[in-house]
Amino acid sequence: MAVLTLDDRSSAGNSATRSGRTGRQVSRLEQANTELLARLKERGAELEAARAANRELTRARNRKEAAHR
């Protein structure tokens, strides 16, 4: 049977503390990632809407120019 010295027990406790902090950090990073992905999706939709509006405005301008020729 192994006997833990005070230093061994302290290291084991520190390891558990590091493990807990790492788990919390991973959770925070996962949450941040989820939020960033949602924002990216929203911005992508906004960009697509702006592009569609730009295409329609360009078509309207081109029709107007063609009618004046």
Key features of this structure:
mainly alpha; 0% strand; 69 residues; 90% helix
SSE sequence, one letter per element: H
Low-confidence stretches: none
Share of residues in helices = over 70%
- In what range is the share of β-strand residues? under 5%
Number of strands: 0
Judged by helices, strands and strand pairing, the structural class is: mainly alpha
Major sheet details: none
Protein name: Transposase
Region (Disordered): 1-29
Organism: Streptomyces lutosisoli
Biased composition (Basic and acidic residues): 1-10
What does this structure look like?
The protein starts with 5 loop residues before the first helix and ends with a helix. The longest helix is centred in the middle third of the chain and has 62 residues, at 6-67. It is rod-shaped and about 95 Å long. The protein is built from one helix and no strands. The mean pLDDT is 87. By secondary structure, it is mainly α.
Spell out the blueprint of helices and strands.
Blueprint: H1 6-67
